[in-house]
Amino acid sequence: MAKINLAGVQRNRDLAEIFHQMALCYKYLGNEERFRAIAYEAASRTLYNLKEDIAVYAKDIKTLDTLKGIGESIGEKILEYLSANKIETFEKLKKKVPQQLLELMDISSLGPATIKLLHEKLDISNREELIEAIEAGRIATLRGFGAKRIENMKRGLKLFKEAHTRLLLEDAMIIAEPIFKQVQSMPGVIKAEIAGSLRRKKETIGDIDIVAAAEKRLWKKIIKNFISFSSTERVLASGETKASILLKKTNVQVDLRLVEESEFGAALLYSTGSKEHNIVLRTIAKAKGWKVNEYGVFETESDKKLAGATEEEIYNLFDMQFIPPELREMRGEIEAARNHLLPKLVEEKDIKADMHMHSTWSDGAENIESIARYILSEFPHYEYIVITDHSPSQHIAGGLQAKEFLAQFKEIEKINKKLGKGFIKKGVELDILTDGSLDLPDELLQQFDWVTASIHSGFNRDNTKRLIKACQNPNVHCIGHPSGRLIGQREPYAVNWDELFEISISTGTAIEINAQPLRLDLRDDLVKMAIEKGVMLTISSDAHSLNQFSFMSLGVAVARRGWCTRKNILNTFKWQAIESFKKNKTKVSGTMAL
């Protein structure tokens, strides 16, 4: 898989956040500044998704102009930031707009007009004051703020709190990697592993846990080096075997635990969790006359050590299969491991294709040929890809009209000729309209190699019937990001999952695990439910830029947490199998039509 340029990613994201803040300022200043707000938000997205360090493009304005959404004015701001580490326009904006108010603008259900009204009428300037005003009933005194609107505000505040107290899985991985490498490379460290919820690949992470086996004589020095890392903002705790630091910029807590090599497996098992999983192991041990802790498994009476050097050794002692970290959530894994019935989970190397991505034809950052050549270089095990640009209803995402898709088909055929193989498949991310109909005619849909249908509107309603109607169309092969959630920003819309999964099976329609960090949709528990019913899934990056193709690893993590094997994931198969899947869809739908 392609490696992430961590320093470049961080620089891009720092600048993206400044542009996002500038966009919020312009939104707050009113409708006359809306075009500036749109421009800076677009530039923010481009920078956030950029694969290369923005400094690579900073030779001059012309080079920056090649980036989508970066015009001359914004290009000058980028050069200014790289030169002076600040942007003068932003400094002036901060004097015009109360900065604490900007935080409120990232809360769903609060637009700039609402925030301005709350500030002017109730002198609310931050989240704490807003919460206090809601609890005291002062918001309800304002005209237009009924019970339903206030309830939506409460939900938005709850989502915001969750998003700002826990990290997205991808962000946690990026933050953890350099710290982990520093620990690994310290003199005296024999081996180390990331533990906790990050090792279990939960969708959000509280803090970062690292377990290291090290030479005992060097423990004191290792702890001293760890708390002295250049990335340390503050030392939270420091002892002989443990230390905790708070990182600069992110305020993320990192905990390090040192053990002897003979204790490493027990410490890793203990620190990985989940807590509930470990409690059950301890209960089983107690019934056998054993005790389990972070140092090993011991006979209770004699204190004789039975296991502890590796996790495999411990599970073997319990007469269990090794339980992958992603499964340690008390969803039946211990019983399955005791009966030696754990599945062989899907792995990244099993993936043969990415079936959802966007190019410059709609809202992607790269042209189709660049995408194809990048994937052939960085993901050599992929056998095909599907370009799925947006359909007409997605105006803001540059959705294509029917004639534009026909022109795109010709371009794809031309590029495939240059590549010497049919690597690129013709696809679309189709919009499911509010009545469940689709925004392209069936005669055009029949010409696509792959059709993914998604909901992009109407998030506050039950969308079960809407999704079912899309599944019943013989030309729809997959339902994209089926719950519509954005982690920490937007709750999933209501869906009767039992009903949808049954229809998915009866119509031969796949369901997507969308690997975008904010989506990870389907959720892992729904993935498990789906495959237990027999639903076929896909894992897709939904990439809008080259660096987003690596999101596939996040989707695989969700699939693994949902107990997926290779056979549960459609894009682990060759294209011939996809064609067979499509033919079965046509037969099933044809039968239904009769």
Report on the architecture of this protein:
This protein has 594 residues and is an alpha/beta fold. The protein has four domains: 6-165, Orthogonal Bundle (DNA polymerase, domain 1), CATH 1.10.150; 166-259, Beta Polymerase, domain 2; 275-342, DNA polymerase, thumb domain (Beta Polymerase, domain 3, 2-Layer Sandwich), CATH 3.30.210.10; 351-593, Alpha-Beta Barrel (TIM Barrel), CATH 3.20.20.140. Helices cover 45% and strands 14% of the residues. Strands 11-12-13-14-15-16-17 form a seven-stranded parallel β-sheet, covered by helices on one side. The chain has a five-stranded mixed β-sheet with strand order 2-4-7-6-5, with helices on both faces. Strands 8-9-10 form a three-stranded antiparallel β-sheet. Helix 20 packs parallel to helix 21 and helix 22 packs across helix 23 (552-561). The protein is globular and about 75 Å long. It starts with 5 loop residues before the first helix and ends with a helix. Mean pLDDT is 91; it is low at 590-594.
